[in-house]
Structures are given as C-alpha cells and as structure tokens.
Amino acid sequence: AGCISSPFDTSDIVTTTTHKSLRGPRGAMIFYRKGLRSVNKKGVETMYDLEDRINFAVFPGLQGGPHNHTICALATALKQANTAEFKAYQKQVMKNASVFAETLTGMGYNLVSGGTDNHLLLVDLKKSRGIDGARVERVLELANIATNKNTIPGDVSAMTPGGIRMGAPALTSRGLVEKDFVEVAKFFDRGVNIALEVKGATGKKLKDFKAALPSSEANAELKALENEVAHFSQQFMTVGFEEDSMRYGEAITA
C-alpha cells in the first residue's frame, strides 16, 4: 500500500503473517532472493542458495500436506491487496493507530518507542500505571476488548510482563475511524483503572487477582464497561457474516 518502507529493498529474506494486516487466512509467507548474490574480485559469481534450504525446512521439516482451501484464501487476499480499496484501508489503519497513540499519550500512558509508525501500539503499563499487562489483559477480556500482554524492555517475566499490545487493523475493517479510536482509548483507560482497583485489594499473585474479579467491588464497573463496549460495537458491521445467519446473532440485538 506504500504506507511504510519496503523491506524487500534491503533484505534477502522477508517473512510475514497472512492473517493480520493482510486480512487473509491464518498462516505466513516467506520471500527469498534468487539468482546472483555477489561477484568477487576475481569475477567468480556466488548465487543465492536460499530456495532449497527454505523449502526443505518448511516441507518436510515443519509442515505436512498443503491446505488447498488456505492457499485459495491467501490468493484472494493477495488479489484484494492490489486494489485501491485495500490501499485506502491501510492508510486508514495508520491514521487510526496514530490517533490512538496520541490519545493514550495524552492520558499519561507511555508507549514503547514513544509512539507508532505502523498499525501497532505497545503500552508500557509498568511505567505508566504501575501494573502489569496480564492483569489488564484479563480485565479487558471480560469487557469484550481483545488485547495481548507483551514484554517490554527490562521485563524478566513473560507471564506478567509490563506491557500490553494493541493493533488497529481489525477495528478499521469494521469501519472505525479516528474519532472512534478516541472512544476505544477511553474504554482502555477505564479497564486499566478497574485493574488497578482490584490489584490494590488482592496482593501480588495473578491467580488471586483473577479469582477476585467476579466478586470484587469493581465488578459493577466492569459489567458497565462490558455493556458499553458491546453497545458501542453494535454500530459497526461485523466482517464476513450476515447477522441473521450468525449462530449467536441474538446477542448483537440483545
């Protein structure tokens, strides 16, 4: 889409997932250079030898038979990536992520690297609020907000890391724009405050924190946040589903 610098200009090998910003099926792709690699002072040519090594490592080294339905879905995603609509979508992803980062920074949150140049944000919760990503992740999960706890520089535990990671592609696909990400940031902040309240009453163990959530005084706040997130989300169409054919469609209009 031309939104960020291409890694192909400077890399011999490029890898990518296919189910995130590409919006394709779950999987990944590996790109590698072929042909002439270098010529020494004596004129001796060295060719790239990556193809066979990578192919053998993938199959039979790591994977079995091909999943033809996944290959077809990936081909569809790659075709869509060549459209003007996809480029517009990626530009909106970048705008949304930028506003999301600016809003969180304005609320006093520290972002690793000071901001974002792509679709991702990594919030330093330890420095910002004195809490870990595992606790905040759990509170947000109960409030219908999907995030990932994530290690940050200086962390010694991946189970209770100091950061939390969030991205803009999925919400952008549902039609959210800049002003909507301001609201998402507010939801996030409320979730962090709920986590802080429960943490203050439960001690150091994560299991005690999780066990206390349903019966804590903050549970009413958590339920209110859950309902507000659901109500907010109803105005944005789900991608790839017709509401009348969804198994849990009644929950959307409840």
Short description:
The chain has 254 residues and is an alpha+beta fold. The chain has helices at 50-58, 68-80, 84-106, 125-129, 133-142, 169-173, 178-202, 206-212, 219-233, 250-253; strands at residues 13-17, 28-32, 36-39, 45-47, 110-111, 120-124, 148-150, 163-167.
In percent terms, what proportion of residues is strand?
Answer: 5-15%
Based on the coordinates given, report the CATH architecture of the largest domain.
Answer: Alpha-Beta Complex
Number of helices: 10
Q: Tell me the count of domains.
A: 2
At the fold tier of CATH, the topology name of the largest domain is Aspartate Aminotransferase, domain 1
C-alpha Rg (nearest Å): 22 Å
Q: Estimate the helix proportion, in percent.
A: 40-55%
Could you spell the SSE succession in H and E letters?
A: EEEEHHHEEHHEEHHHHH
**Taking all residues together, what is the mean pLDDT?**
93
Q: What's the name of the CATH homologous superfamily of the largest domain?
A: Aspartate Aminotransferase, domain 1
Quickly name the level 1 CATH class of the largest domain.
Alpha Beta
